[in-house]
Write a structure and sequence with these properties.
With about 450 residues, the protein is of the alpha/beta class. The protein has 3 domains: about 120 residues, ATPase, nucleotide binding domain (Nucleotidyltransferase, domain 5), CATH 3.30.420.40; about 160 residues, ATPase, nucleotide binding domain (Nucleotidyltransferase, domain 5), CATH 3.30.420; about 100 residues, no CATH class. The strands form 4 sheets. Strands 14-21-20-16-17-18-19-15 form an 8-stranded mixed sheet. Strands 1, 2, 3, 4, 5 and 6 form a 6-stranded mixed sheet that branches. Strands 9-8-7-12-13 form a 5-stranded mixed sheet. Helix 3 packs across helix 8. The C terminus is likely disordered.
Length: about 450
């Protein structure tokens, strides 16, 4: 029997903020003679908000109250109550994620958006969500695709091949690295450009000067794609912590984000008080668009659609739950070096809070393996909550073994069928039939 979930995606970007409400269809793929296997089988967008400029108190501070009001109004327009939301994600992206009060705003929005809707940001997750939301994964089934989601402060890259994401990256390249007023007087200059261009806040920027900067930024994207030889300057534009992707000159360039709307459309160069229109034009005239390229099926909304439709996963075929109060949020994921008590305890205690133990496990494990693993986990967790997320489908068996070894008052939750990157956090929702909904949050914040 099918079940429907209501999902919300909220993207608070450097330049714009958007919401999307989606309906997710959940179905049990298992037969009557096998264990249940719950999967999300369909996604349908119910409501897309207008694209709002992200409210800022200044160049450094998000206006949390205005942002909260914006979200509340969009809920009303969509005709959706907070209590109706089952899952989703709040994504604070690009330069906005580095604002000094981002963590406070995230918590505010997370509480407003519903019991399970979560807050998350980071270049790895942004890249994956944008590629999914723009249709790049589907396009890569025919040929490799290098997707670039180009926003106000950053460009998130995802190499897609045969329907999978092979690698991700992030560059400090975007349309709002410079902002100027109606008189072309610069009101904001990103630290990424300070000292690298002969302009500063308060000076007048001309079209020619803006075009020269746009060409420089487009060249950085060409270098990332392997369509121009890298210079020492390329390293300066790499987002710290995001890693450098190997060049992929054979991959078809694909674009989303606000700047992507300016690639095939003509806009006045100063239409938005930033570099966006000229950066789009510079990309169009670059090596990236000399040949086959694609614009995402969604451009400016790619990330928010990815957040609303693709952030949620379901646990695998078996789940064990005893005494754990759901939903729970922001559980850090601990990945031990080995499946013994010492390594498990060390991994759990190395996190900023007690969290979820992530183990590979084994498919079709024998009794001896389950017993040994349960002994190690029980010894390591003691009387603290025992949350385990496994790659292999063995949660039910391990959970029963743990229940025999841990006191009755200790909460136990075992999930399976999950592949979780390091430096991740989990939000675990209420059961969906015999499965449990999970949002994996990777690289939640960077401090720069």
């Amino acid at each position: 029997m099918d079940k429907q979930l209501l999902s919300v995606g909220l993207d608070v970007g450097t330049t714009t903020t958007q919401l999307v409400f989606s309906q997710l269809q959940v179905r049990n793929r298992g037969s009557a003679f096998t264990v249940p296997r719950m999967e999300i089988t369909d996604r349908h967008i119910l409501y897309k908000s207008p694209v709002h400029f992200t409210p800022l108190l200044s160049g450094d501070l998000i206006d949390g109250e205005k942002l909260r009001l914006l979200v509340e109004v969009e809920y009303q327009k969509a005709g959706i109550r907070r209590s109706e939301v089952d899952t989703g994600a709040v994504i604070i992206t690009g330069e906005t994620s580095r604002k000094e009060n981002a963590a406070t705003v995230v918590e505010m929005l997370s509480d407003f958006a519903g019991d399970f809707v979560v807050a998350t940001a980071g270049p790895e997750l942004e890249s994956a969500l944008a590629a999914r939301g723009a249709g790049a994964l589907q396009a890569s089934e025919a040929a490799p695709v290098l997707h670039m989601d180009i926003g106000g402060g950053t460009s998130n890259l995802a190499l897609c091949r045969e329907g999978n994401i092979e690698a991700v990256g992030c560059l400090n390249v975007g349309g709002r690295l410079i902002k100027f007023d109606a008189h072309h007087r610069i009101t904001y200059l990103s630290p990424v450009l300070q000292g690298r261009i002969p302009l500063s806040v308060g000076e007048i920027i001309t079209r020619d000067a803006a075009w020269e900067i746009a060409e420089k930024l487009a060249a950085i994207l060409e270098m990332a794609a392997g369509r121009r030889e890298k210079t020492p300057e390329f390293t300066h534009f790499l987002t710290p912590g995001a890693g450098e992707m190997a060049p992929q000159p054979e991959a078809i360039p694909s674009f989303s984000g606000g700047v992507a709307d300016c690639i095939d459309r003509e806009h006045p160069w100063d239409a938005y008080g930033d570099l966006g229109p000229l950066l789009g034009q510079a990309i169009r005239e670059s090596n990236l668009c000399r040949g086959n390229y694609r614009l995402g099926s969604e451009t400016i909304r790619a990330t928010v659609i990815g957040a609303g439709c693709y952030s949620t996963q379901l646990s695998g075929s078996t789940v064990f739950l005893r005494g754990a109060a759901l939903p729970v949020k922001n559980l850090p994921v601990a990945v031990p070096e080995a499946e013994n008590a010492v390594s498990i305890r060390r991994a759990l205690e190395s996190q900023d809070a007690w969290g979820v133990l992530h183990l590979p496990g084994r498919n079709a494990p024998d009794y001896g393996y389950i017993r040994t693993l349960a002994d190690a986990v029980a010894e390591a967790t003691g009387e603290k909550p025992c949350y385990v997320a496994l790659k292999a489908d063995m949660a039910k068996a391990l959970g029963h073994a743990l229940a025999l070894r841990l006191p009755d008052h200790v909460p136990i939750l075992c999930l399976d069928g999950l592949h979780i990157p390091r430096q991740s956090y989990l939000d675990i929702g209420n059961p969906v039939g015999p499965a449990v909904s999970v949002v994996i949050k990777t690289l939640a914040f960077e401090n720069h």
